Amino acid sequence: MSVEIGIASLSDRQPCTVDGRPTTEAGRTAEIIELGVQADRAGLDLIGVGEHHSRDFAVSSPAPILAAIAARTGRIRLTSAVTVLSVHDPIRVHQDFATLDVISGGRAEITVGRSAYPEPFALFGVDINRYEEIFAAKLESLLRLRSGSPETVPHPVQDPLPLWIGAGGSPASVARAGALGLPLILGYLGGSPDHLRRLTDLYRATGEQAGHGDRLRVGVAAHYFGAASEHEAAATYPHYHDFLRPKSPGGGGFVVSEQAFTEGRTLDRPLMIGTSEQVTEKLLHLHQAIGYDRLQLLADWGGLPQSQVHDSVHRLAGEIAPALRESAD
Amino acid sequence: MSVEIGIASLSDRQPCTVDGRPTTEAGRTAEIIELGVQADRAGLDLIGVGEHHSRDFAVSSPAPILAAIAARTGRIRLTSAVTVLSVHDPIRVHQDFATLDVISGGRAEITVGRSAYPEPFALFGVDINRYEEIFAAKLESLLRLRSGSPETVPHPVQDPLPLWIGAGGSPASVARAGALGLPLILGYLGGSPDHLRRLTDLYRATGEQAGHGDRLRVGVAAHYFGAASEHEAAATYPHYHDFLRPKSPGGGGFVVSEQAFTEGRTLDRPLMIGTSEQVTEKLLHLHQAIGYDRLQLLADWGGLPQSQVHDSVHRLAGEIAPALRESAD
Which of B40, B61, B96 should one mutate to test binding to chain A, selecting the residue with the greatest count of A CBs within 10 A? Predict the structure, then answer.
């Protein structure tokens, strides 16, 4: 199959990992830049860096992080994952990523979406109750900027700058991406391939109806760990639990039981956590269901030790990606 | 004397240089990143990158450019020159430069100031007639953010993030910097050391009156070229003329005659364009007049060939800087 295979980091961080290592924002940031360099060397297609606005994450502004990766790499594509467009000035977003595109020789992308958390709205003083309206207006501005109105500097190397819609599962977001003929990246964090299929069917139907049939592309974002053994895969559970647990009383998040974690790793469920063979089988199964064009696998969550993350990324590049590419469509 | 010595680039660019070389935004951007790497290797203390919003400049967003330089350097300090604060969200400015600070291991600075051009106000929809009020309010926000209110992520390595006020010569701006106890960088683009002295006297008097005597620092920004010979220095005139000429009928800028250029290169005038000996003499003379703490010399203007810029930067690092540092205060 022809599919772009990449990784992402959300920069999640706690003061201390579940295995007792203290962390810093600076250390976490350095790890992410190294991860980008390593993914480039390993031949992966893409790295995405998330934007968050609470102490539970190290990165609030992906563009400078991606620029630092760009300066040390030559091939890998670079995207936000996601830019919280509704709290920013679309002009500055376009300038930042056009600058990244120039720095990287045409490797920048913007992925815009809704924040999974309320913090950015409070911080930037944007009324979360007017989210839909504000997002739609800013997306329209960004689309105009991409087509040169108003003209801004620098002009990206890619014309226009690639722009993806990131969606968690809202049919309205999916239909909007289709209607605009924009590529769509779907979070596969719960449910099953059948559930995703309903969303990709909606996307493709809306897109084709709007005359964008040849521009439609589907990406999938999922949680990933490529382990040396079933034992190593299962042993990541405490990290996964720590990654998703609510970080404050009543705060957002999920308490994932070990049973739910184990269940999530089965064929029809979203967790891409297992040996290379297990993950390859799940990704092929998902491809049969929805025919994706891009994978963006969250590689460094819950304080996994950096050496394990590196090995996992090398399994993706060296074992899983070749197996996917060699398979029939 | 103890003085920080650095360079700056405003990224000025025309489609074709006066000596007939076509240019691109991407090429100009790559030159600036290389200039930062070279300045670091040569031992200079600082590189500043300007922000502009017209086609006459390649860079609109300095933070990603500085991040790319940070990724390839280990020592040089990195600043905007200047951030047009009045058109941006101070929260995002602080996040971008705190991110740069983390990437660079504590080498980021923000220099804020008024744009010399009207384009940013038109582009971002900010009323230029309300400039003073908007700038003052956003500077107040930025100062609060630096002291942790509201708390944003990432926290800079430096606490607080260094913040300079860039001023062209407005006594009000100079007095504001003094009253706030912020370091001040003054453009020395016309006038004489005596003229600058009136401004630094005002800055120091205002600062001392406000109880900030020990926090006051003065930087000087000037146009620079360190030549191998008087002949090479004089021959830069067509580039200097092209740098400053109005780029559209009625547009901003100055037509600099060859006589004014030559006059500007004399001891009591601002152009730091000459042999290392000539420039050193002028900088010592200026230091006697105003006692600056930092120099930020515009190194790559008017389409000067990159090889000449590199040689000029090496003269600054290898000949002028040592001569200044060895001189008595």
Answer: B61
Nearest chain B alpha carbon to A157: B26
Fold of B4-326: TIM Barrel (3.20.20)
Tens of pLDDT along A283-299? 999 999 999 999 999 99
Cα-based torsion angle of the residue sequence B111, B113, B115, B120 in order, rounded to the nearest 10 degrees: 80
Query: Smallest CA–CA separation between B222 and chain A, in Å?
Result: 25
Domain ranges of chain B: 4-326
Interface ipTM: 0.97
Whether residues B103 and A153 touch (CB distance < 8 A) is answered with: no
Mutate to test the interface with B, among A60, A87, A121 (most CBs of B within 10 A): A60
Q: Are the Cβ atoms of B65 and A67 closer than 8 angstroms?
A: yes
Each residue of A87-132: pLDDT tens digit?
999 999 999 999 999 999 999 999 999 887 889 999 999 999 999 9
CA distance B305 to chain A (A): 20
CB B189 within 8 A of CB B201: no
Q: Which tokens sit at B179?
A: 């009253």
Query: What is the Cα A25 distance to its own chain's centre?
Result: 20
H, E, C per residue of A202-219? HHHHHHHHCCCHHHCCEE
- pLDDT tens digits, one per residue of B244-292: 999 988 888 999 999 999 999 999 999 999 999 999 999 999 999 999 9
Q: What are phi and psi for residue A223, nearest 5 degrees?
A: -85, 135
Comparing CB atoms, the residue among A70, A92, A157 nearest residue B68 is A70
